[in-house]
Amino acid sequence: MPYSVFFYKGYAIHGTDVVKRLGAPASHGCVRLHPKNAKRLFSLIQANGRSNARIVIVK
Predict the structure, then answer these.
(1) Rounded distance, CA 27 to CA 57, Å?
(2) Whole-angstrom Cα distance, residue 12 to residue 14?
(3) CB neighbours of 53 closer than 8 A, spacing ≥ 6?
(4) Residues of the chain above pLDDT 70, percent
(5) Which DSSP helix (H) or strand (E) runs through 6?
(6) pLDDT tens track for 10-38
(7) CB 38 within 8 A of CB 14
(8) Are 21 and 2 in contact (CB under 8 A)?
(9) How far apart are CA 6 and CA 46, in angstroms?
(10) What secondary structure letter does DSSP report for 40?
C-alpha cells in the first residue's frame, strides 16, 4: 500500500497499482487513490504534520 495514511482503526487512504479498478470495492474499507494522487496527499500531510491533518469521509 504505497503512500498509506492511516486514520481510523486500521483504515487508510493509499495508492494502488490497479488503477483500472478505482471506484470499485476492493478492500475492507480503505480509500484507494491513483499513485500520483496518493503521493501528493502523503506529501501534504507529511509537510504539515500528521497531528494537524483531519480526515473526513463523506458518503
Answers:
(1) 16
(2) 6
(3) 5, 45
(4) 100
(5) strand 5-8
(6) 889 999 999 999 988 887 778 999 999 99
(7) yes
(8) no
(9) 13
(10) H
Helix (H) or strand (E) holding 44: helix 35-48
Let me know: does 32 contact 14? Beta carbons within 8 Å.
Answer: yes
Q: Residue 6 corresponds to which cell in the numbers above?
A: 492511516
Q: How many CB atoms lie within 10 A of CB 15?
A: 19
CA distance 28 to 6: 13
Distance (Å, whole) CA 42 – CA 59? 22
Cα separation of 4 and 30, whole Å? 10
Residue type, 24: A
How crowded is the C-beta side of 26, counted as CA atoms within 13 Å? 16
Task: Assign 13 to helix, strand or coil.
Answer: strand
